[in-house]
Amino acid sequence: MEREWFLLFKVLGLGIWMLIATSCSATLSPSGVNYEVVALIAIKTGLHDPYNVLENWDVNSVDPCSWRMVTCSPDGYVSALGLPSQSLSGTLSPGIGNLTNLQSVLLQNNAISGHIPAEIGKLERLQTLDLSNNKFNGDIPSTLGDLRDLNYLRLNNNSLSGQIPESLSKVDGLTLVDVSFNNLSGRPPKLPARTFKVIGNPLICGQSSENNCSVIYPEPLSFPPDVGKDAGAKKHHVAIAFGASFGALFLIIMLVSLIWWRYRRNQQIFFDLNDNYDPEVCLGHLRRYTYKELRTATDHFNSKNILGRGGFGIVYKGSLNDGTIVAVKRLKDYNAAGGEIQFQTEVEMISLAVHRNLLRLWGFCSTENERLLVYPYMPNGSVASRLKDHVHGRPVLDWSRRKRIALGTARGLVYLHEQCDPKIIHRDVKAANILLDEDFEAVVGDFGLAKLLDHRESHVSTAVRGTVGHIAPEYLSTGQSSEKTDVFGFGILLLELITGQKAVDFGRGANQKGVILDWVKTLHQEGKLNLMVDKDLKNNFDRVELEEMVQVALLCTQFNPSHRPKMSEVLRMLEGDGLAEKWEASQRNDTPRFRTHENTPQRYSDFIEESSLIVEAMELSGPR
């Protein structure tokens, strides 16, 4: 309401600001100035922004909730600041301390320098602070110990010095603290975090292998105890020991009675590990949902609410109690042997991968029989679902949007491969897994799920996860994946964007194997690029850009993974840098003199026919 008043007075040109003072919120001063706007502009002023990602941060704006990289809570306050991997430099303004409703600050993988502002300690609601992989120097502010809601603290890979503040030991809710690879000194305090990383600080760890401080694991954290539980802990333990046998028998009788009663009422029985937890308990910025909550949200997982099916499970549209629309992924084939702790750890690590071109994980649910992940609902569906859609006779995805989708997807994969710690291999890059937000910005989904469902240490997996037509040849042949596996999948995605066709279904009625890569290669060799372009575009595309995108796609889909570029190189080529040199080099490598195995299949369809793993891969795949 106060923002509406402010806008009204501004439009009318009234100068009677004292009237606003009587009805303004905490973000408005008596003169009508929005403190959050002032704070964000101070942050923008302190940073160097070479790619103008903060271009729409306007000092004259009334509502910062519409600004890029800014997230607001339902009541209209700035709750999250997410600027990871944006090539930002400069310093972080102390004005950040005035964004008092912040819950998440993500500035990792930039080149921001200077001191960490002590004013961050004023952000009483802050849960996640990630300043890793920057150039911050000076001491870690002791005021961080005032952040009593803090869960995740990542300050690794900077140039910080001094001691780790003892005040952090007072933050009971810490899950992860990573201060590795700095110049810190002194004895590390005893922190309540489940994971505490200090490796790479020579003055703490030294050069001796005896002082193993790569990861410090304190006692496992538990959820907040009941009132009075600590005070009577000893008596409680004695009582349990004294009455263990009788208590166990009593519980068994009660459990059997409960099961029989529910059976007689013809109701499904749920052993929901979450039922005993406070539903507001969060893990970092993750919400832990109850099974019943998500079952209700999806109308008992009604088939009418299915958004997609795939190798990882089924995705349902859901509506939470507060009206928030979500996408609920009900996982299948999860590794039950990994257990609750393993699942929770993997989910937490996936949730730390935050980028504007990655699908943000909101929360999860874990029970004895179920694993569910909760994501924001993407109103424009997937790239695959929109390629054939039209509005007023025009394709929803015109050439300009297809280029933006290619660039956004590339940026998301660069983050997963080269800026994420640990790096994440997607293993199923395809049009159906690239989602579109309300602005048709590309959002990579399903990343990290292959690792989540396969806890083996080796990078070699006999269970090939992916979609036929998108799977790299070496992955089909050996089950071995790497980041170059994703590069191949990205190349096929480019061909989907260019042709509007599916990777395998294309040309099935013609005299072809039905593989889009082989068809495009043939047309490119014959110089008939115009025949491969999606007919729905009706020649509304740039011929030079088409040639460049086809070349990038063919570089990405080379059969030898060592010849494929890295995703960072792919991104630069899509942005117009270095493509000519890469393409010329690839043509030299493709001559018979440079081929190491003359019996190597020359068509992608030959790899599919020869693969012993293809049946399993097909079973794990499907539309999403």
- Major sheet size, sense and barrel closure: 7 strands, mixed
Radius of gyration: 27 Å
Q: What would you give as the CATH superfamily of the largest domain?
A: Transferase(Phosphotransferase) domain 1
Binned, the helix content reads 25-40%
CATH class of the largest domain: Mainly Alpha
Question: How is the largest sheet built, in terms of strand order?
Answer: 2-3-5-7-9-11-13
Oligomerization state of this entry? single chain
Number of strands: 24
| CATH architecture name of the largest domain | Orthogonal Bundle
Distance between the termini: 41 Å
Number of helices: 19
Share in β-strands: 5-15%
Q: Extract low-pLDDT stretches.
A: 1-26, 207-212, 217-242, 259-284, 454-462, 507-513, 591-598, 612-624
Shape verdict: globular
Secondary-structure-based class equals: alpha/beta
Number of domains: 4
Mean pLDDT: 76
